[in-house]
C-alpha cells in the first residue's frame, strides 16, 4: 500500500509551523517552521537546517513548505489547519469549502493576529494542493461545554442573542491534548479527572476541566482577555479604553493595537522574552545570557513585571481550584510552562499540595488525529 500523509498547518501572525504525519500511525515524517513572515530576516528551519529566505506572506510560506517537502507532498491526502476562532458555529472538525471560508471570514476581527493568516493558509492549500481535502480544527471547539453562567457576560442579553458576544476560550487544542495526556499519565479516564491546565507561552491561558470537560477558561470573547501575555494586556478595566479614547483621542484601531501588540510583558518591561525578564530580575537562566550590565531601574521593572505575571496566574489557579473543589493535577505546558522550572516554582510555592505535571503540548498531533477520523 502506498504511503499516505497528513500535512498540518499551524499559522501564527508571523510564523507558520508545520508537521507532516504518516496517515497510518500518525508518526511525524517531517516538521519545521517558517519565521518572521513579512519581516526582515525571514527563514525556514527544518530540524537543524536553517535557510534565510525572503517570505512576504503566508501564501509564500506555504509554497516554501511544499518545496521543502517535495519528496512526499505528492502523497499528501489531507491538510489539517488550526483555526483560532470558530464561534458557536464551528464546534467540530470541519471540511473546508468556499462557503465555509466565507463564514469563517467574519471571525477575523475577533482573532486578528491568527484567523486572517489561518485563512490565507487555507486558500494557499486549496490553490497549490488542488483536490486535497482541507480540514479546519478550532481552538474554540473544546469550550463548547462551558456552562452559560461561565460564558455569558453581564451585558444586556440582546448583545449575546443578536451578536453572540460571550466567552469563547482559546488554546483549546493545546488544553485538550495535555488533558488527555494527563489522563494517560495518571492512569485514569479523563471523564473522572478534575484538572487545571496552564498554557504559558507568548499567549497565555488557563482552563478549568471538570470530569474531563472544560467548565471555565481565562480567555474570553477574544484571545485578549485573561492573563498577562507577551504583548497582550490580559484583563483590564474596560473603562480604561474609554478614558484613553477621550483623553488622548485614540481611535478604536489604536486601542486595539495598543492592547494586542504593545502591552503585556513588552509594555511593562520592554522585553518580549521571559528569559530576558528573568535575567534582568536577577535570576539565572541556563544557556541564556544578556549583553552588558542591567541598569537598576530595568532590574526593578523586570522584577515587578515578573510579579504581575505570576500573581495573575495564581489568581486564576486559586479561583479554578475553588470552582472544581478537588484538583487531581495542575498541568503546565507551552514555551514558558514547559521550559521554565523557575516560573513553575514561583507559582507552585503557594500551591504545595497540588500534583504538578509538565506536559509538552502537541497541537499538530491533536489536529492530525482529528483529521484522520475523516478517513474511517
Characterization of the model:
The structure is a single chain. This protein has an eight-stranded mixed beta sheet with strand order 5-4-3-2-1-6-8-7, with helices on both faces. The longest helix has 29 residues, at 296-324. It is an alpha/beta fold. It has helices spanning 58-68, 98-105, 115-128, 148-151, 158-163, 172-186, 239-247, 252-261, 264-269, 274-280, 296-324, 334-339, 341-348, 363-372, and strands at 5-11, 16-22, 28-35, 43-46, 49-52, 76-83, 94-95, 134-138, 195-200, 204-210, 213-217, 329-333, 356-358. It has 14 helices and 13 strands. A hairpin with a 5-residue loop joins strand 2 (16-22) and strand 3. The protein has two domains: 5-138, 2-Layer Sandwich (Nucleotidyltransferase, domain 5), CATH 3.30.420; 188-358, 2-Layer Sandwich (Nucleotidyltransferase, domain 5). The model has no long low-confidence stretch (mean pLDDT 91). Helix 1 (58-68) packs across helix 3. The chain is 38% helix and 19% strand.
Amino acid at each position: 500500500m502506498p504511503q499516505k500523509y497528513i500535512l498540518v498547518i499551524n499559522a501564527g501572525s508571523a510564523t507558520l509551523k508545520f508537521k507532516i504525519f504518516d496517515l497510518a500511525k500518525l508518526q511525524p515524517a517531517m516538521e519545521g517552521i517558517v519565521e518572521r513572515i513579512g519581516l526582515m530576516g525571514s527563514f525556514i528551519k527544518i530540524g537543524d537546517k536553517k535557510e534565510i529566505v525572503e517570505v512576504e506572506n503566508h501564501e509564500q510560506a506555504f509554497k516554501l513548505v511544499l518545496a521543502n517537502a517535495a519528496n512526499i507532498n505528492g502523497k499528501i491526502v489531507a491538510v489539517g489547519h488550526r483555526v483560532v476562532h470558530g464561534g458557536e458555529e464551528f464546534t467540530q472538525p470541519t471540511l473546508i469549502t468556499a462557503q465555509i471560508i466565507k463564514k469563517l471570514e467574519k471571525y477575523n476581527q475577533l482573532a486578528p493576529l491568527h484567523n486572517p493568516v489561518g485563512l490565507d493558509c487555507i486558500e494557499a492549500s486549496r490553490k497549490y494542493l488542488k483536490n486535497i481535502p482541507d480540514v479546519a480544527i478550532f481552538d474554540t471547539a473544546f469550550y463548547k461545554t462551558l456552562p452559560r453562567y461561565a460564558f455569558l457576560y453581564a451585558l444586556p442579553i440582546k448583545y449575546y442573542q443578536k451578536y453572540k458576544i460571550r466567552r469563547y476560550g482559546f488554546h483549546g487544542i493545546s488544553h485538550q491534548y495535555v488533558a488527555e495526556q494527563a489522563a494517560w499519565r495518571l492512569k485514569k479516564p479523563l471523564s473522572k479527572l478534575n484538572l487545571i491546565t496552564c498554557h504559558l507561552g507568548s499567549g497565555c491561558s488557563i482552563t478549568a476541566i471538570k470530569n474531563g470537560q472544560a467548565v471555565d477558561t481565562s480567555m474570553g470573547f477574544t484571545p485578549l482577555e485573561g492573563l498577562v501575555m507577551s504583548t497582550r494586556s490580559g484583563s483590564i478595566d474596560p473603562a480604561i479604553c474609554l478614558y484613553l479614547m477621550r483623553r488622548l483621542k485614540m481611535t478604536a484601531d489604536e486601542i486595539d493595537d495598543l492592547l494586542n501588540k504593545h502591552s503585556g510583558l513588552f509594555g511593562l518591561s520592554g522585553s518580549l522574552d521571559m528569559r530576558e525578564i528573568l535575567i534582568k530580575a536577577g535570576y539565572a537562566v541556563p544557556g541564556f545570557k544578556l549583553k552588558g550590565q542591567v541598569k537598576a531601574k530595568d532590574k526593578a521593572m523586570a522584577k515587578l513585571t515578573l510579579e504581575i505575571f505570576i500573581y495573575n496566574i495564581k489568581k486564576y489557579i486559586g479561583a479554578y481550584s475553588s470552582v472544581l473543589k478537588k484538583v487531581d493535577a495542575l498541568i503546565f505546558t507551552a514555551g514558558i510552562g514547559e521550559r521554565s522550572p523557575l516560573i513553575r516554582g514561583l507559582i507552585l510555592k503557594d500551591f504545595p499540595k497540588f500534583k504538578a505535571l509538565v506536559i509538552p503540548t502537541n497541537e499538530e498531533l491533536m489536529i492530525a488525529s482529528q483529521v484522520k477520523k475523516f478517513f474511517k
